[in-house]
Design a protein that fits this description.
single chain; about 240 residues; alpha/beta; Rossmann fold; 10 helices; binds adenosine-5'-triphosphate; P-loop_NTPase; AAA+_ATPase; ABC transporter ATP-binding protein; transport; ATP-binding
Length: about 240
């Protein structure tokens, strides 16, 4: 459904993404893994329409996303869960969730989405009137994911959901991710290759702005030497 061909993205003279092609099929969790600076976040931001593209194509079900503004891409169902969460610290949990639904005009879908978020993250129900900024890191990550789900996503673009969280919280977040895939396709960026590969269907390994390896997550897990060659200690 989401298809990228020969994508090239530069920041001034710095070419961050050289020539990336990838596919995200309906119902899959696809992950992008690779070392710092490999171009993972740049790829996600390009899909959301937040960066100028110097070459290639990005399509969603054959619709050319390069002709769309960021809000139109969101309306088409591609919703980011950004690195660092990006919640509104001075709004309550409830208000943060409402912000996620700003493009949704069906009250029924809003209610259903809210119920989905509450089922996934009961922690948020208990804290609906708390300030976003007073939540723990794990709760903020839940809120960021919940807010994205309120936008009725077809595809979630998740950037490093495990970042800065304790292992037990990371496990909690990834369990939720494995439930979200029921109904929502996920393109996931993760530094923690081993973790991402345990939950993903398919993976692309990026290095220096290029895809250097791709395959089913299982096949990449089975070639652990190859993965650890790319990631050193990270793939543990
Ligand atoms: N705003 C920017 N201005 C200039 N160069 C940038 C900018 N953002 C990223 N880059 C450069 O683009 C390249 C790709 O960065 P990107 O953030 O996409 O990598 P990444 O794989 O997501 O890494 P990380 O895990 O560190 O976020 C790097 O060389 C980085 O220094």
């Amino acid at each position: 459904m989401l298809s990228i061909h020969n994508l090239k993205v530069s920041y001034g003279n710095i070419v961050a993404v050289h020539n990336i092609s990838l596919q995200v099929r309906n119902g899959q969790i696809v992950c992008l893994i690779g070392p710092n600076g490999a171009g993972k976040t740049t790829t996600l931001r390009a899909i959301s329409g937040l960066l100028p593209i110097s070459g290639g194509s990005i399509t969603l079900n054959e619709i050319d996303l390069l002709k769309k503004q960021p809000h139109q891409i969101a309306k088409a169902g591609i919703i980011p869960v950004p690195e660092g969460r990006g919640i509104f610290p001075q709004l309550t949990v409830k208000e943060n969730l409402e912000m996620g639904a700003y493009l949704e005009d069906s009250p029924k879908r809003k209610r259903n989405n809210l119920e989905r978020v509450f089922t996934l993250f009961p922690e948020l129900v208990e804290r609906l009137n708390h300030w976003g900024g007073n939540l723990s890191g794990g709760q903020q990550q839940m809120l960021a994911i919940g807010r994205a789900l309120m936008a009725n996503p077809k595809i979630l673009l998740m950037d490093e959901p495990s970042m800065g969280l304790a292992p037990i919280v990371v496990e909690r977040i990834f369990q939720a991710i494995s439930k979200i895939r029921d109904g929502t396709t996920i393109l996931l960026v993760e530094q923690n290759a081993n973790l991402a590969l345990q939950y993903a269907d398919y993976a692309y390994v990026l290095e220096h702005g290029e895809v250097v390896l791709q395959g089913s997550a299982q096949s990449l897990l089975d070639t652990e030497d190859l993965v650890s060659a790319y990631f050193g200690g990270i793939a543990t």
